[in-house]
Structure formats: C-alpha cells, structure tokens
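Escalated from tier 1: manganese (II) ion holo job.
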Amino acid sequence: MAKLGATGQGGVNRPALTHADIEVHVRLAKWARDRHFGIEIDSYGNQFMRRAGTIPDALAIVSGSHSDTQPTGGRFDGISGILSAVEALEVIDDAGIATRHPLEIVIWNNEEGVRFNPTNMGSAVYTGASAVDVMLAATDREGNTMGGAVRNLRDAIPWAKVRNLKTPLAAFVELHIEQGPVLEIENLDIGIVTAIQGTRKFEVEIIGDEAHAGTTPERFRRDAFVDAVKIASALRDLFYDPLDILRFTIGRFEVFPGSLAVVPGRVLFAIDLRHPDNAVLKQLGRQVESVCNKAATRCDILVIETRRAHPTSFEGPVPEAIETAAKQRGYSFKHMPSGAGHDARYLNSFCHSGMLFIPCEGGISHNERENTTPEALAKGAQVIADTLLILDERL
Ligand code: HGY
Ligand code: MN
Ligand code: MN
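Tier 2 regenerated the structure:
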C-alpha cells in the first residue's frame, strides 16, 4: 500500500479518492471478492467489506480506518488500521470461525481533510453528524467535487453494492499508530484509548485589492498579506496557553494571486484548534472572528467555521474487550487519551466504539519518517482479531 502514492522519500502522498487512493480501494475490494466477502459503498464513498455472520439481521461489528494521507504523510497513519482489520478477517476466515454477527472492514473516506476540507467527512456523514449533500459539494483546488470523486470510485468497483448511510452497526474498533512517543518510551505494546480531545477548525479569508508592486505607494495599498500577518499574530496571542494544553496551528496559508509583482489581493488561511475541555474551546472559538476583525487594518475579513467536534470519551464494551484481549495475549498496555482526531470520534455517538494504539517510532507522524515495527503491527492486528471475536460473544 505504501507504494500507492509513494513520495520517493519514504513517505506517502495519497489524497482522498485520487488515482492512488482509488487503487487502494480497488485492491482491497478484489481481495474481499476473492474471499467471497460482500462489498458495499455508500453515497459518500465509505467502503465496507463484509464477512457474513450466522444470525440473520445481526448488526455488523466493524474495524478499519482511513486510506488517505497528509501531503507528506507516512506509511502507517490510517492504512495500518485498515490492514490490521484485513489481517484479522483473513485469519478468522482461514480458521473457519463462524461469528454470530457479520464482521466488516471499513475504509472511511477523506479522514485527513487535505484534498477536500474539512476532516473526518466520511464518518461524520455516515453517522449523520454532517449533511451528505453539503459534503458531496466540497471541491478540491482544481474545482473537482467530492461527488465526482465518489462516482470515480464507484466506476472503479462496479460490483460493489449500495450501502445506506446510517445503516446501524453493533460496534466499531479502530487500530491506529499512537502518533506520539508514550508507548515507545514506556515500552508498552498497546494503548487503550480513553478519549479524543475536541477540535474546532476555521477558515479566514482576507480580501484586499490587487495592485502593481512597483507603482502602488504603501498608503494606497490594501495588501491582504500584511493584514493576514497581523491577524495570525493576534490569534497566536489569543491562543497562548501557559499550561501548553491548547493546540493552535495555522497549517495552510495561501496568498493570491501568488505573483512576485502583484500586491496580494486575497489571503486564505486555516486554523486548527484543539483542547480536551469543551468549555475552553467554546470560549476561545467565540473570539476568533472579533480578534480577526480587530487586528485587520485595511482589508475585509470573512471567518467561517468548517468543523466543530466535541471531546469524546470511550467507555463500555469496546475498550473492555480490547483490555481482555491484551491481557489474554500477555501484552503490556495502558489507558491513554488521543491528541489526534480519528473517525472513531463520530462512531462513538452512533454505536459502541473504541480505539487501540500501537507504538510509533519517536512519536513522529504526519511526516514521511513515520515508522513502527512489524512486531508492533502484528500485536495490534492480533488484538483487533481477538477484540472482534470477544465482541461477537458479548454483544
Ligand atoms: O488531524 C488529525 O488529528 C488527524 O490525524 N487527521
Ligand atoms: Mn492523520
Ligand atoms: Mn489517521
């Protein structure tokens, strides 16, 4: 899978439903077809591969993650969660184990929010937290819509059946690399995820006037870049947290028209804000628009919120089953929160949900150097297989 969208520097660049990402979907669909598993794709492009259970109408127990990556992403963020589910279903199938519930592998569409903004669209749409029409209308930088991209996916897998959005599930469990250093430093096999911090994302548009860079005196300029820098600095002051719990990032900053000789007439940048306490996010998020407007001197400012997700905590059958599985195998584990966002966040308000982390070298992620070990991946996949079977008994 790491060859599909390989950057040449050891990483992966595989935006949602580009050629490389669709190829991931096709290969997994062919693998599933060879196993006589059912394949379904919903109207938003989430793909499900299903091994039937013995009880008719029993809800599916599902595991998986996302196949898209950051532009300079690693080989494990997302895809390791899908492949561990594949591995789990493969061994369960090879062993001829009949489960009561159907077991499913899922590929959530567009988790990273790189090509189409915002993040976690697939799980948000599936569970009803985001409107499908709005999300299908999202466009990438070339003006392609998500709706068109989903049609390309469907065309590539014509044998896939249609899955209805909001089809109920019995449970969802997601494996992910930790993307932080804790498990490696403490020499632990498995992290049982207790919570995901809340997030709010905004887009800020600064609208000035394009002008000739050589002839236009400063006093006549409405330079969008100049105001954008003032705004970015004011936002950094607003979000300064002496406790260093708040996470504030401007990871995208675009200057238009982007020519050396033109005073920028427009700047677009994105804010990523995260905190475990919803009250803090609420209080700070409320101030974004006024701080932007106050800091601007000559330009017009437009602020829109593109994503708001509350902190969520995982409790009940799924984390309990992960713990049972880890104990049975004699794997070391700890309970820990997640700083990164994951699709399990949206599933958690839809069905029993949980996540497990495996160690990640140096805690490095969203980086081409992202790495883990075959042993860590194998233990994680083993726990996923065991967890699916434990949940099949308990639910
Ligand atoms: O940004 C996140 O937390 C996720 O990895 N996309
Ligand atoms: Mn990621
Ligand atoms: Mn991820």
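DSSP finds eleven helices and 16 strands in the chain.
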